[in-house]
Design brief:
The complex is a heterodimer. In chain A, a hairpin with a 2-residue loop joins strand 1 and strand 2. Helices cover 21% and strands 30% of the residues of chain A. Chain A folds into two domains: 104 residues, Translation factors (Elongation Factor Tu (Ef-tu), domain 3, Beta Barrel); 137 residues, Nucleotide-binding domain of ferredoxin-NADP reductase (FNR) module (Rossmann fold). Chain A is of the alpha/beta class. The longest helix of chain A has 13 residues. In chain A, the strands form three sheets. Chain A has a seven-stranded mixed beta sheet, sandwiched between helices. Chain B starts with 9 loop residues before the first strand and ends in an 11-residue tail after the last helix. Chain B contains 13 helices and 16 strands. Chain B has two domains: 214 residues, no CATH class; 101 residues, no CATH class. Chain B has an eight-stranded mixed beta sheet with strand order 3-2-8-9-10-11-1-12, sandwiched between helices. In chain B, strands 7-6-14-13 form a four-stranded antiparallel beta sheet, with no helix packed on it. In chain B, helix 9 packs across helix 11. Chain B is of the alpha+beta class. The chains are: A alpha/beta, B alpha+beta. Chains A and B meet through strand 14 of A and strand 6, strand 13, strand 14, strand 15 and helix 11 of B.
Chain lengths: 293, 392
């Protein structure tokens, strides 16, 4: 599977080590299929390599264009949010507008949020650690876009609990503010307080019990470091949530996206095929508690 | 007019007939490969006629040991399994996926395959793979051809390849195909071979013959050029006897009942650290295994400025295999051995609906320290270690 050529339309610096690339297909007929929320693409920095990257927004994903400028990038445009953790992600993070990257995808199982009116069925709880907010942004935008009343307020309870190392590492601050303005219950917490920070300090798990979530009919979407997801899921389960309605996004080394290369195995799962989004209940609960080391 | 077998028929050919079969495959424009002796081992190689087959050779396999000796006997297939499997024929150790030119302005142009290799390679014909190795193709078929997006390279080679399986009359010291249901005969497997041969070499030289079960129409077409006779009841019962003697001579045994559950219930067993004290994490087992399919995908920039993506066999015994930003997920040898063995025997069922082990025994033979997957499984079961003997 050859990568499709995409042009970098914009490179937005989110934090000191996180960038969002807005990509548009060089030719419309080469564009990859529109991703579902939570699916990922393999991005190629030519001459460096390829890495699995979350889609944080796409022109098809968002229920409406809520002023994020995607319309200017054109049809089939897509935003990937990347943390600079190695040679490939570094090359992507510094890709300048106008340069070309390769895109293969979309791969894997998403959150499934397209399939129903989740906010009408119960509370929706989004919990993100650091860059874990990336594959959740489009879900929140979609749910918000489809479930607002005449006055533009959310018709249901949407909790967004985001954690970061410190204030400067909070990604998508403008989106968080926008969701709060729509009526979402947004709470941001940091590990370390810095001058000027007046919000919560501590782990995201500490924000779950006081949030006032109604566990009956609730759904939770969790993405962040594995240990954070494990304790978040446990805290949500303790509230009385059905573990099969708690979704986590699991990560392993990925090199093909097609189930051929064997790298992304996690016990019975081939994560590029069976994940990255999986329900926490059953075997996955056990997998997340079992140490692979 | 001479009788010619059709799909479903059982025919008999003599040694000259086997030679004629190899010729017929070459005449049908196949690249014919078979077991040949190379560097003191039986390995896949080009086959021009019966003269290339390892006639009279006998292998001795034990944990960490492989010896080949010439018995001066007349049989062509009096050995257990080839040192290398046929995996590389369908899934090459290294393969170019694409090549592109990156221009100074930043434009990227994908290049078609270089002229030299543009000519379609001849389809493969493999004569002399064992039932365990044919079953292994059924395993890699599910991985590569059965994926939602099938691997086109594997599928092209596999779809066009002609398979003439030779049933096994002489299992070796590390074999346990009868435990895995993949041998010594070749009966029900996922995919159908084209021909299934059984060598009958116990009688006089004049009586040396091969039973040929014609499975596919393609097989029948090739057999039309080979002098044959119909198999008799005596031929059939001789085959039965050969296979039941072989099944009784397996060097190893693996109790598969409840094995996935047993392994997954014992992820914290102390045996994993014990085996890790011997395991060198060298990856010989994964190279030798006919079903291990892991590969790295790597991009390089050549001196010409061209960017090339290749895939290359990888091993879950490498620390880098599980690399995630920050480090390896499976940092210890015990976690990597556990990953390999539980995948092979347990989680493969979850992923692909079958066992990842076909019982060929190569991981035992080619382990430099002689780690034995059947012994490890037995240890976890808490049973006495299987008697290493039983080998003829």
């Amino acid at each position: 599977m050859d990568p499709a050529l995409y042009r970098v339309v914009a490179n937005r610096r989110e934090t000191s080590d996180v960038s969002s690339l807005t990509l548009a297909p060089l030719k419309a007929e080469m564009a990859v299929a529109p991703p579902r929320h939570g699916q990922f693409n393999m991005l190629t920095a030519f001459g460096v390599g390829e890495a699995a990257i979350s889609v944080s927004r796409s022109s098809r994903l968002s229920g409406r264009d809520s002023g994020q400028g995607l319309h200017t990038a054109g049809a089939g445009s897509i935003v990937h949010t990347i943390r600079d953790v190695g040679a490939v992600t570094h090359a992507l993070c510094v890709a300048s507008a106008g340069s070309l990257v390769g895109v293969r995808g979309p791969f894997g199982q998403g959150w499934g949020a397209e399939d129903g009116d989740w906010l009408a069925e119960g509370d929706v709880v989004v919990v993100a650690g650091g860059i874990g907010l990336a594959p959740l942004r489009s879900v929140v935008d979609d749910l918000a876009g489809r479930s607002t009343d005449a006055s533009g307020r959310l018709r249901g309870r949407l909790f967004v609990i985001a954690g970061a190392r410190e204030q400067a590492q909070v990604i998508f601050a403008d989106d968080l503010a926008r969701w709060a303005a729509l009526g979402a219950i947004v709470s941001v917490t940091v590990d370390v307080s810095t001058p000027g920070w007046t919000g919560h300090v501590g782990l995201v798990t500490a924000q779950i019990a006081p949030a006032g979530i109604d566990p009956g009919g609730a759904r939770a979407l969790v993405c962040g470091p594995e240990i954070m997801m494990r304790f978040t899921a446990a805290a949500l389960e303790k509230l009385g949530m059905d573990p099969s309605r708690i979704f986590v996004s699991l990560e392993r080394n990925m090199q093909c996206g097609l189930g051929w290369c064997g790298h992304c195995q996690l016990g019975p799962l081939i994560l590029c095929r069976d994940g990255p989004i999986v329900a926490y209940g059953g075997a996955v609960t056990h997998l997340m508690r079992e140490r692979e080391r | 007019m001479a009788w010619s077998p059709r799909a479903g028929d059982l025919a008999v050919v003599d040694v000259a007939g086997l030679d004629a079969l190899i010729m017929a495959l070459a005449d049908a424009s196949y690249d014919v490969r078979g077991p040949v002796v190379r560097s003191g081992a039986i390995e896949p190689g080009p086959l021009g006629g019966v003269v290339d087959l390892p006639r009279g050779m006998r292998d001795e396999q034990a944990p960490g040991r492989y010896d080949l000796s010439d018995t001066a006997g007349g049989a062509f297939f009096d050995w257990s399994s080839s040192a290398r499997s046929w995996k590389a024929e369908l899934f090459p150790p290294e393969e170019e996926l694409w090549r592109a030119r990156q221009e100074p302005g930043g434009n990227v142009t994908f290049l078609s395959t270089p002229k030299a290799s543009r000519r379609e390679p001849l389809p493969l014909a493999i004569l002399g793979l064992r039932p365990c190795d044919f079953a292994a193709l059924g395993v890699t078929d599910r991985v590569f051809a059965g994926a939602a997006v099938p691997d086109p390279r594997y599928r092209r080679r596999r779809d066009t390849a002609f398979m003439a399986v030779v049933e096994c009359g002489s299992p070796g010291g590390t074999c346990f195909c009868s435990s895995m249901g993949t041998g010594p005969g070749c009966e029900g497997t996922d995919a159908a071979p084209d021909l299934v041969l059984t060598e009958i070499a116990s009688g006089t030289v004049a009586d040396h013959r091969f039973l040929v079960r014609v499975v596919s129409d393609r097989g029948a077409e090739v057999m039309a050029a080979v002098p044959t006779r119909k198999a008799t009841e005596a031929d059939r019962s001789e085959r039965e006897a050969i296979l039941s003697r072989a099944a009784a001579r397996m060097g190893r045994r693996l109790v598969t009942e409840g094995l996935p559950e047993l392994l997954l219930a014992n992820l914290d067993h102390e045996r994993w650290s014990e085996v890790a004290r011997r395991c060198l994490a060298c990856g010989n087992c994964t190279s030798a295994c006919p079903t291990c399919f892991c590969a790295d995908v790597r991009d390089t920039t050549e001196l010409s400025g061209q960017v090339v993506r290749r895939r290359r066999w990888a091993s879950c015994f490498d620390r880098e295999h599980s690399y995630l930003h920050g480090g390896a997920v499976r940092a210890s040898t015990s976690s990597r051995y556990r990953q390999w063995m539980t995948h092979k025997l347990a989680t493969w069922w979850d992923q692909f609906g079958q066992s990842g082990c076909v019982g060929c025994g190569r991981c035992i033979t080619w382990c430099p320290v002689g780690i034995d997957i059947t012994e490890e499984a037995a240890a976890l079961r808490g049973a006495a270690l299987p008697a290493g003997g039983g080998a003829a």
